[in-house]
Task: inverse folding
């Protein structure tokens, strides 16, 4: 490295350290949010330049002389050597979902510091590494899936654990993201109208792409964008018209049922009609909005009003209960380390990579970008007055349904807010009320609306920005729901096909309908459970989602570590082993606390016991007896699901550990299932 | 050595000439800026076409035709791509 380059990196390191020091030590003053972004950007730059390079050169020994599956098996369809920037775009669009936006918003109840540090450090040392190494492993195996690699490289037991892990995470993921949408659209005619408009728009685009201009995705997306923005603007007139608003105003339970029916329809309808066009539309809106948010933060350089650390690190937080360790690390999964990414990294992406060294930018770099999205979401939370942030995100079960009681409780925590503040804010964004909007989406939308409207000097358009942000979040959450239900259905059909062949055929319509109904019923049950939960649903479901996602990351890191040891790179196994140890410690601690904690707000069983005591003491009204019994059942079900997740983590860890011992003690000959090495003929 | 002070009028003319010069530079720069924006826009559009998969069919067709095989229609190709894409995990949380 030349002297000039060394100097440059020394300056980057010093600047990053200074920004981080400023962010970490700020007490009692409002820092500029740009410092947070600068600190993160410097750490990403250093991580990418040095750590990912070390992994690429020393640990994985990537070689551009070795032909990738895209070159060896090129067929013009699945395997196509593609420009690295195009694959980067594909991969980033696939991994960037609602998780890095919602998780940081929820974790902001601890203050901005714990979440931000976890997002940045977790990504550089864990999430990016997981994505990069999984991508490498799959690329060296002709694009095999994570489950297949677990089966080939660990054992059949590892493969089955991965299969069930993916199926479970799919169900919990869909339920929890659907809950976020329900809470954002509850009693919001403007929001619901905007989302409702996207369905006929998607159908129209589907027909356009299927019959009128096959495959002309960009044309269709531009047309769709115009129509969807018209829907956002038109939503105001619907909300202001009492006659029309009536048709678009629903409570949580009704909205949950609508989403379940929609998910079922999207799963059984032909993919070209609804799912694919909605996906195209949401991808472009998602990428455009993320870019706009980044520019908005740089242009507006807002002050962070939320303190770096709040009193709720002690576990008494209103949004979800539990101490900063382990719950901050469970709440923010996507953005720091997300097991789900390993499914994408072992799917389409490895079949498109033209040169082995491109995997570094695509695997490590894309996750870094996603992590930056998490930092921006954190910034959007910090620009809100802390009292407003807690008023929006605290459930009715904690602060009450009456506005006066809620503001008194929140002000009593040391975060002053008034009913006037909240009603003015609701009026500015075109909503009736913003109290008890748990789930993160509304507070993110308010933060984004404030950044956009202050940047562009259009305060009067704050309501439009708010509903655009809600539409943007709901649109791609519903895309995750559509695609997840369909994939879950495929996996279930694959599983059931072992018992009765016709059920495994994806062209047999009764089988399609039946398995779609089963998958929708599974996530629909958890969704309804979250909706009727007096603590807001997020308190119980989001930790379950975090635990299941980290379970998948545990599986991925076990596969990666096994492969490194089998490749004879055991001395570098700490690269994947260190994040694995950290993940296992947080997953197991969180699982243990969610099941066995004596605090009813944390422990599922303690909560069930508290409800049973209430019934036994006769303090539960007769008309609420059935609901309370249901809540007790739900608590026990959640405890059982958590135990299953923990058991799967122990199982994959024990199975992997056994194999590592056998290989390292030379008691078993390691056999890699890599594709044969061939010399690349593609120019570098 | 004493240098002659420029005439007030010529000072004024000098400033005017400079202003005209800068204005010319700015106006000459405008087409340059426009072409830069147009160039950047066309690059972005080309990139989006690639990422969205719009060029996949023409690439496939060229390859198949070169091999002397009959290509499927654009509509059939599009449908097959969708089936493949949405039968596995393609979107993350």
Result:
């Amino acid at each position: 490295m030349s002297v000039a380059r060394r100097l440059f990196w020394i300056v980057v390191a010093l600047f990053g350290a200074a920004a981080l020091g400023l962010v970490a030590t700020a007490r009692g003053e409002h820092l500029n949010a740009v410092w947070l972004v600068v600190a993160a950007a410097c750490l990403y730059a250093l991580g990418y330049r040095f750590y990912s390079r070390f992994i690429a050169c020393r640990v994985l020994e990537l070689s551009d002389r070795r032909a990738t599956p895209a070159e060896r098996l090129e067929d013009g369809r699945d395997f196509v050597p593609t420009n690295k920037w195009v694959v980067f775009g594909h991969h980033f669009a696939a991994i960037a979902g609602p998780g890095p936006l919602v998780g940081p918003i929820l974790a902001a109840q601890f203050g901005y510091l714990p979440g931000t540090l976890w997002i940045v450090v977790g990504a550089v040392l864990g999430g990016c590494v997981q994505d990069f190494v999984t991508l490498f492993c799959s690329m060296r195996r002709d694009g095999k899936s994570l489950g297949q690699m677990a089966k080939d490289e660990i054992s059949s037991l590892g493969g089955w654990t991965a299969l069930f892990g993916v199926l479970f995470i799919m169900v919990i993921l869909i339920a929890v993201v659907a809950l976020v949408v329900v809470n954002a659209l509850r009693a919001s005619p403007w929001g619901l109208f905007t989302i409702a408009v996207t369905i006929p728009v998607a159908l129209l685009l589907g027909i356009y792409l299927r019959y009128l201009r096959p495959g002309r995705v960009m044309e269709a997306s531009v047309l769709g964008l115009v129509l969807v923005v018209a829907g956002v603007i038109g939503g105001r007139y619907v909300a202001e018209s009492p006659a029309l608003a009536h048709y678009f105003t629903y409570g949580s339970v009704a909205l949950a049922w609508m989403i379940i029916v929609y998910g079922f329809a999207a799963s059984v309808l032909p993919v070209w009609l609804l799912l694919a066009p909605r996906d195209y539309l949401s991808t472009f809106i998602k990428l455009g909005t993320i870019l706009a948010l980044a520019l908005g933060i740089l242009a507006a350089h807002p002050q962070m009003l939320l303190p770096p650390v709040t009193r709720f690190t002690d576990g008494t937080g209103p949004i979800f209960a539990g101490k900063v360790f382990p719950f901050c690390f469970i709440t923010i999964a996507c953005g720091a380390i997300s097991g789900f990414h390993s499914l994408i990294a072992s799917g389409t992406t490895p079949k498109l990579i033209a040169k082995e060294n491109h995997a570094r930018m695509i695997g490590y770099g894309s996750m870094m970008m996603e992590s930056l999205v998490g930092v921006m979401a954190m910034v959007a939370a910090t620009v809100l007055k802390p009292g407003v942030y807690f008023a929006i995100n605290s459930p009715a079960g904690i602060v009450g349904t009456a506005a006066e009681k809620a503001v008194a409780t929140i002000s009593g925590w040391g975060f002053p807010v008034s009913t006037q503040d909240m009603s003015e804010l609701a009026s500015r964004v075109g909503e009736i009320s913003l109290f008890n909007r748990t789930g993160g989406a509304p507070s993110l939308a308010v933060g984004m609306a404030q950044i956009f409207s202050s940047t562009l000097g259009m305060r009067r358009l704050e309501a439009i920005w708010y509903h655009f942000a809600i539409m943007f979040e709901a649109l791609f959450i519903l895309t995750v729901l559509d695609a997840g239900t369909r994939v879950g259905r495929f996996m279930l059909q694959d599983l059931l096909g072992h018992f009765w062949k016709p059920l495994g055929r994806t062209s047999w319509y009764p089988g399609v309908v039946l398995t779609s109904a089963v998958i929708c019923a599974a996530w629909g049950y958890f969704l309804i459970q979250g909706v009727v939960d007096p603590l807001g649903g997020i308190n119980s479901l989001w930790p379950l989602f975090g635990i299941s996602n980290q379970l998948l990351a545990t599986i991925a890191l076990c596969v990666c570590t096994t492969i490194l040891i089998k490749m004879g790179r055991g001395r570098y196994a700490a690269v994947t082993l260190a994040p694995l140890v950290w993940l296992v410690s947080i997953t197991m601690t969180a699982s243990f606390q969610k099941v066995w904690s004596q605090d009813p707000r944390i422990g599922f069983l303690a909560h069930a016991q508290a409800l049973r005591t209430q019934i036994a003491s006769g303090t539960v009204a007769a008309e609420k007896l059935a609901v309370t019994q249901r809540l007790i059942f739900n608590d026990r079900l959640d405890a059982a699901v958590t135990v299953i997740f923990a058991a799967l983590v122990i199982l994959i860890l024990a199975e992997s550990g056994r194999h590592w011992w056998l290989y390292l003690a030379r008691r078993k000959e390691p056999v890699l299932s890599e594709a044969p090495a061939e010399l690349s003929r593609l120019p570098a | 050595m004493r240098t002659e002070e420029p005439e007030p009028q010529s000072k004024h003319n000098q400033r005017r000439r400079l202003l005209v010069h800068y204005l010319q530079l700015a106006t000459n720069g405008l087409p340059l800026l426009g072409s830069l924006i147009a160039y950047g826009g066309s690059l972005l559009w080309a990139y989006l076409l690639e990422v969205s998969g719009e060029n996949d069919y023409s690439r496939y067709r060229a390859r198949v035709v070169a091999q002397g095989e009959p290509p499927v229609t654009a509509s059939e190709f599009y449908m097959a791509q969708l089936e493949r894409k949405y039968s596995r995990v393609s979107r993350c949380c």
User: Anything to note?
Assistant: The domain at 3-187+250-664 of chain A is CATH 1.20.1740.10 (Amino acid/polyamine transporter I).
